[in-house]
Amino acid sequence: MKRILKRQKRIYDDDMPVRDGVRKTLVGAIDDGTKTVRFVIFEAESSEELAAHQVDKTELQPQEGWYEQDPMEIVTNIRLCADNAIDQLTELGYSKEDIVTLGITNQRETTVAWDKFTGEALHPAIAWNDIRTDSTVDAILAKVPDRNKNYLKSMSGLPISPYFSALKMRWMKDNIKAVRRASRDKRLMFGTVDSWIVWNLTGGPHGGLHITDVTNASRTLLMNLETLNWDPMLCRLFGIHRESLPQIRSSSEVYGIVKDGSILNGITISGILGNQQAALVGQNCLQAGQAKNTYRSGCFLLYNTGTRRVQSTHGLLTTVAYRLGPAPPVYALEGSIAVAGGAMKFLRDNLKLIKDVAKDTEHIAGQVFSTGDVYFVPALSGLYAPYWRKDARGIICGLTAFTTKNHIIRAALEAVCFQTRDILEAMNKDCGMPLTKLNVDGKMTSNDLLMQLQADLIGIPVLRAHTWDMSALGVAIMAGHSVGVWSCDKWKQHSTANDTFLPTTTDDDRDARYTKWKMAVQRSLGWATTKKSIVMTGQKRKSSTIQSFDISEPNSRKNSIDCDIDNSDLDEALLNSARKFSIFVPLKSPQDEHTILDDAEYFMSKKECDYGVCQCCQNKNKCEYKMCQCCKNKKRLQTDWTTIEEIIENDPEIIFDSDDNPIIVEPAHGICVESGLLGLKKRMTLNSLPAMFKNLCGKSSHTSI
User: Fold this and answer.
1) What is the rounded CA–CA span in Å between residue 459 and residue 620?
2) Quick one: which of 23, 100, 416, 605 is 20 to 30 A from 552 by CA?
């Protein structure tokens, strides 16, 4: 028995990473994804994963198309995962002290707003795939020449889309009372999830670092790709104060030390990367011309363009791949697919065609040899790259009497592959260098049928990494590089293990199937007919889609509103007010462009009958109890335009002169104008007022300004 125990102990010792008392250097990685939070510990010399722990996140969906997360749950889950992963180290002969540094990778466009004095989140985090900002996008596009959604791409590399963080920030400022208060009191902090995590880990309200890296900042629509800093014009256009935004740093440098009292206390933080850029590094695509694709809920294909910044003209995004300290940044072209794995969950949860996504999709789809000319476009919340059509909706077409659920499930798998080919086609046109191989990772890559279909439909080899999640490894490499544990130059020479899938179809066959896919995409466009804002149509909107303006705030001047008007009409007036559309100004404003003051004049010109009230009420003496005598149960409109002017007053970043040129108005002491109907009590300098505003005051008041 003693001999058996001794032999078992010797075998156990041989398997231990710690041999002869020599411990290897370890690097930790926090990986915050859309659905899960992970903490992974790597052995630096071999980049081997030693320990890991994962916790699922709670995702809230208060309305259709809205996706939210609890910011505090993210921080709590990180600490929980770190506790469990470090406990595993003790079984391997290591301890927390062997972790020399820490990297953070995160879901990118997801946006958090919090109070810098209390540390409390002011609203649930708005996830990257949330589309609630449609109305904000419409308001911005109305101010852009030709309503061009690519108008800002030359500066930011991104189109105007609900996908990006600036729109989510603006929506919170417009619609969330706590965010507006914090902004007014100069205690508001905005950031992507990496900023929120670093701020909490490094002390929070007690000296926490408010920073982000260039990869996350490049996804906000606020960073200039050339200067790698917040662009003053973009910040003004979206109405986001630079003081509330984090400082932009490189992807690999020593930022600070964890000071949150958790098990991670005292560990250096030295690497930050957005999760898709981290996967690019983890896949060893560090040279220009290499690309990777990650298959998760969405699909994200990044193509390394080196230090050359390629401006896409075919629907792709220009983004920062990474930056090593003070070295020049490395750029990438990106194609984002909104729905990939999400389509499989749709088949499971909504259509009940499958029970287990991982097993059933491959097994059931493999029972048929083709889709039977069935095509599934999973535009469940619009199409991302290269189309950028938020009006697209999902369709299944090509059904016949012989179609079964097997064909539909296989068509869903092919849809992921076709969307990937869409992006590769655009990349070929932008770069002029066709890709020779595609590195892939993500949970969906465990599906062998999907990988083979992908190789068949793009016509190049697909190389699948043995580790499904390369994001954690990528940020660990960045963190280790900054403290000298390993170098990215050495990592470039490292050969990663992978499985290779080669194409088995002819060019004619794959091109014919791709042509029909494009036909299906065309049929998916234009299904969502969203109501345009007053700025876009010039006419009164009959209903509102966002009931979020707060007019009952205690001790607020908004309580001064005193009108007998239906709640729907009151909401209509507030929603279509000037403030809603004062958040964007084109760089070169055309002479005939609509201005924020035109909205107020629009309402001033309305008659009561335009709101469904009879014109006979124009004589105020005729109507008793403020009720129209000839229109039963119709209330007479008595609009106090103080509300309209206060809305303009509360958003003072931009006004316009008589030539419609934008003017940034700073708070200034001046005369106090107060009149009966207008009730304007803001101190201002008369010289800064445009002629149009003076005319508006003249129409609204008996007192000459």
Assistant:
1) 77
2) 605
The CATH number that applies at residue 49 is 3.30.420.40
Q: How far apart are CA 381 and CA 391, in angstroms?
A: 8
Residue 260 buriedness (CB in 10 A; 0-12 / 13-18 / 19+): middle
**How many other C-beta atoms can be found within 10 angstroms of the C-beta atom of residue 495?**
6
**CA separation for the pair 2, 569 (Å, rounded):** 88
Task: Determine the pLDDT at residue 454.
Answer: 93
CA distance 357 to 346: 10
Same domain, 513 and 611: no
CA atoms within 13 A on the CB side of 156: 26
CA dist list (Å): 237 to 312, 391, 586: 23, 24, 8
Q: Do 245 and 368 have their domain in common? A: no
CB 646 within 8 A of CB 558: yes
Q: Of the candidates 79, 73, 68, which has an alpha carbon nearest to the alpha carbon of residue 110?
A: 68
626: left (phi over 0), alpha (psi -120 to 50) or beta: left
Exposed e or buried b per residue across 335-359, where buried means at least 16 C-beta atoms within 10 angstroms of its C-beta: bbbbbbbbbbebbbeeeebbeebee
What is the structure's pLDDT at 586? 43
DSSP category for residue 528 = -
Neighbours of 614 (CB within 10 A): 15
Residues 513, 632 within the same domain:
no
Kindly state the average pLDDT of the residues 412-428.
91
Structure tokens at 254: 């020593």
**By C-alpha distance, which of 131, 64, 111 is closest to 382?**
131
Domain count, the chain: 3
Q: Could you tell me if residue 481 is inside a domain?
A: no
Comparing CA positions, the residue from 254, 256, 136 lying closest to residue 203 is 256
- pLDDT per position as a tens digit, 75-120: 999 999 999 999 888 888 888 888 999 999 998 889 999 999 999 9
Among the listed residues 50, 64, 67, the one whose alpha carbon sits nearest the alpha carbon of residue 163: 67
> What is the residue type of 573?
A
Identify whether the C-beta of residue 191 lies closer than 8 Å to the C-beta of residue 198.
no
Is 318 a domain residue? Answer: yes
**CB atoms near residue 243 (< 10 Å):** 13
- Domain enclosing residue 659, as ranges: 534-700
Q: Is the pLDDT of residue 647 over 50?
A: no
In this structure, is residue 472 part of a structural domain? Answer: no
Name which of 628, 558, 134, 144 is nearest 381 in CA terms: 134
Q: Are strands 59-60 and 68-69 parallel, antiparallel or unpaired?
A: antiparallel
Alpha helices in 483-623 (DSSP H): 488-492, 507-524, 534-537, 567-575, 596-604
What tokens does 390 get? 């938020």
For the chain, percent of residues with pLDDT exceeding 70: 71
Span 244-301, pLDDT tens digits: 999 999 999 999 999 988 888 999 999 999 988 998 998 888 888 888 998 888 888 8
Paired tokens of 441: 């990772």
Q: Please give the Cα distance from 705 to 694 (Å, whole number).
A: 7
Q: How far is CA 179 from CA 206, 315, 414, in A?
A: 21, 33, 43
Look at residue 470 and tell me if it is in a domain: no
Q: Give the pLDDT mean for 292-317.
A: 87
Please, are residues 318 and 225 in contact by the beta-carbon 8 Å criterion? yes
Considering the domain architecture, whether residues 623 and 652 belong to the same structural domain is answered as: yes
Same domain, 278 and 334: no
Do 540 and 624 belong to one domain?
A: yes
400 vs 306: CA distance, rounded Å: 48
What angle separates helix 471-482 from helix 275-282, to the nearest 10 degrees?
Answer: 80
Q: Are residues 171 and 307 in the same domain?
A: no
Give yes or no: residues 274 and 298 share one domain: no
Residue of 105, 104, 123, 103 whose CA lies nearest to 113 = 123
pLDDT on residue 391: 85
Final residue in a domain of this structure, among 282, 316, 345:
282
